[in-house]
Amino acid sequence: MWKRVAIAGLLLALLIALGMHLSVQAVKEESAGTVDAPADGSASVVPHDAAGDQVQVLRVNGRAERRTGEGRWTGVLQGDKLAVDDAVRTGGQSSITLDLGDSSTIELAEQAEVEVRELSGAVQKLGLISGRASVDYRDNGERVLNIENGDGTVVARVQKGRFAVLNNGQLLAVATKTGSVDLSSAGRTVVVSEGKQSVAYAGQTPMTPFEIPVDALLRIADGSCRIQKSGGAVVKGTVSVGARLSVDGQPVTPDGGGRFSIALKAAAPGKKVLIRETDLWGETRETQLTCATAAQKAGIREVDINWGRDG
User: Fold this and answer.
1) What structural domains does the chain harbor?
2) What is the pTM assigned to this prediction?
3) For the chain, what is the HEC assignment?
4) Stretch 126-144: mean pLDDT, rounded?
């Protein structure tokens, strides 16, 4: 009798074990072949990496570096992904293009730096620490892109459009090709619509948007490379607002009206001085001056115009 009881118990245990195994296997197969449906019954969507918590490096031209969080700067490669607090920067005559998701991109020109500050379904926030960038934002209207200056006090906000933005350390300048960009600073916001640009200095309200100049606006003051009695020379002139400028290889920051003045210590009569102006879209104009004394006339010669590139 006890043998029959023992055998029956053994068979029962085997059946229970077999049932548990089959149940677990069925759960695994179901999990492998299906995903949980949303509570509202809508279809599931697999999120794009860049639309979630990362931005991806699309192209690298020349020398560029990346920083992870507060870490050190290292080389950057195509396909690298950037999370919040990561940053990238470019060297001279270099550029890098970042994929923001949904076919949206931002291209950094030479000697520029950008930091990822926020990535969510509602907003992408980037800090343009320095330099110039071109943006093509093609989002579906549910998310916006904010590009800030270093301390976040000046913000360019876009939902859809193509525009260029520059941070030269004193101002944030925006020029819009398509769509519109909201430029905010010091409690005021202006709408920079297609074909216009605006500038906002940190702590000041943005300028009223104005038409993007068709041609470069570099103007050299009469006798601008004038040799001084005390030695050296002074170069004066004006450029388009928001342009980047270098004189004899030295970066120069114009004032709010585009006016500039720079002293050149190592200058003598006959010295050739190259002035290089790059507007917000990367169109570069180079002008060569010949320094002269007060009794002479300073020579001015246009050297070259490079359309749509920095070098």
Assistant:
1) 55-211 (2.60.120.1440), 219-306 (2.60.40)
2) 0.72
3) CHHHHHHHHHHHHHHHHHHHHHHHHHHHHHHHHCCCCCCCCCCCCCCCCCCCCCEEEEEEECCEEEECCCCCEEECCCCCEECCCCEEEECCCCEEEEEEECCEEEEECCCCEEEEEEECCCEEEEEEEEEEEEEEECCCCCCEEEEECCCCCEEEEECCEEEEEEECCCEEEEEEEEEEEEEEECCEEEEEECCEEEEEECCCCCCCCEECCCCCCCEECCCCCEECCCCCEEEEEECCCCCEEEECCEEECCCCCCEEEEEECCCCCCCEEEEEEECCCCCEEEEEEECECCCCCCEEEEEEEECCCCC
4) 91
